[in-house]
Amino acid sequence: MNDFVEIDFTLKDDEGSVVETTLPQVAKDNGFFDDKFDYKPLIVILGSNSVVPGLEEALSGVKAGESKQFSLTPEKAFGPREAELVKLISLGKFKEQGLNPTVGMVMDFDGVPGKITSVDSGRVKVDFNNPLAGKNISYEVKVLNVYSTPDAKAKGLVANAFKGQEVSVTVNADKAVVSASSKVVKDSNFITKKLRVMQVLLQYAGFKLIQFVEDYALPQEHDHDDHAGHNH
Fold first, then answer.
1. Same domain flag for 170 and 193
2. pTM value?
3. Rounded to 5°, angle at Cα 197 from 193 and 203
4. Of 33, 92, 194, 226, which cross-links 27 as Cys (Cβ 3.0–4.6 Å)?
5. Which element (helix H / strand E) includes 231?
6. DSSP per position, 28-76
7. Residue 229 above 80 pLDDT?
8. What pLDDT score was predicted for residue 220?
C-alpha cells in the first residue's frame, strides 16, 4: 500500500535560484511571496506519479524528521525540452481576443500555460515546455510525517487539506467519515479540496466508502439584550 509522505521542500533551478517552496519565509526571502497562495506542506503519495520521479525515489523508505538535499538530472526531473511543444500562432488570433502578447509573458491556452518567446512578422512563438524542462534541479526536503495505515492517511490528509479549519475524520474499517463544522466556509475551494480528499482516500488509502458530513447554521444574530440601555 502506498505510503503518504508529508514534506516541506524548496526547489532550485540549475543556477541555484529558488523557484518553488512550501515555506512562506523562504518565498519572502527570495522575493516571490504571494499572500493569495496557501503555503503548507506537500503530501506525496508514493507510487502515484504525482511528483517528478527523482523526488518520489528519494522519499522511498524515509522516516519522519529526516532532511535531504539532492540534485536531479532532467531525466529524473521535468524531462527534456521538446521542440514540438514550441508553437507558432498567428498574432491575429490574439488580437481577436483583445490580447497584446509580449516577449516573456506567460498566457493561458485552454488551461495550459505557454510562454511568449518571440513576436515577429505577425506570428507569435509560444513555448509550452515546463520552464524547468531540460534543466538540472535540486531539492531541499524535510520529512514531517510518514502515514502508512489507512487511519493515519485519512487523518493526515484531512489535516493537511483543511489546515486550521474545523474538519475532522473518523475511521471504521474500510469507511471514513469526514465532518466539517458550520464554521467552515463551503465555497468552491472547499468543494475542490473535498473532491480531492475523496479521490485520494478511495484510490490510495484502501477505503471503500467515504462520507462527508457538512454542518450548516444561520449566522448568529446580534443579541440586543446584552446591550439594553445602550444607545445604538
1. yes
2. 0.86
3. 145
4. 33
5. none
6. HHTT---TTS---PEEEETTS--S-HHHHHHHTT--TT-EEEEEE-GGG
7. no
8. 77
